[in-house]
What we know:
Low-confidence stretches: 1-22
Mean pLDDT: 83
Number of strands: 2
Strand content: 5-15%
Helix content: 55-70%
Distance between the termini: 127 Å
Radius of gyration: 39 Å
Strand order of the largest sheet: 1-2
Amino acid sequence: MRQTVCILALVLGAYPSGSAQAQVTPVVPAPSQPTPFPRKVATIFGQNAIASTQEGQKATAALTAKYAPKKEEFDRRQAELLALRDQLKKSAPTATEDARNRLNQQIDAKSREVKRLGEDSQAALEQEEGAMLQELGDKLLAVVREYAARNGFAVVFDVSAPNGPVLWASPAVDITNEIVKLYDQAHPAAPPAPPAAPTKK
């Protein structure tokens, strides 16, 4: 009988006060290590980067060529206005009052004409430039985000604005050139179309 009690004690364990349930110690998982976060900071001259890409240079050249005739027309009318003012100045001592009034009216009309032409051309150019910068800027931003994530940057500041929040930054953290290279690899500009062959008569 004593042998049977000893066997049961070995099987069930030595429980105080005749308890028949084992006390299980809970397993506490080891505390997880905090995920490291990036601490590096970089700067970029956004406008310079856009203008330095192959697409940016191509788009800028296209805008310049498109508005070259407008600029030539503005310069021509500006020269006409200056010629009228010079004529009035030279003829003032000897010209009649009616002649001076007619010249003044011509100068006023030409001045309004030049001003309107300049404002219209400038507004149209700025609108197209804005659309171009928006399109290229969205592409540039995607390249910057991918580059920053891959290289562990926490913040990338655009220091294009002269009165921006960044007062000073070391050239060592400037990533403009790297971003331009990556942009050109991701978005190579199409080569210019070859000139049309002359038609045979």
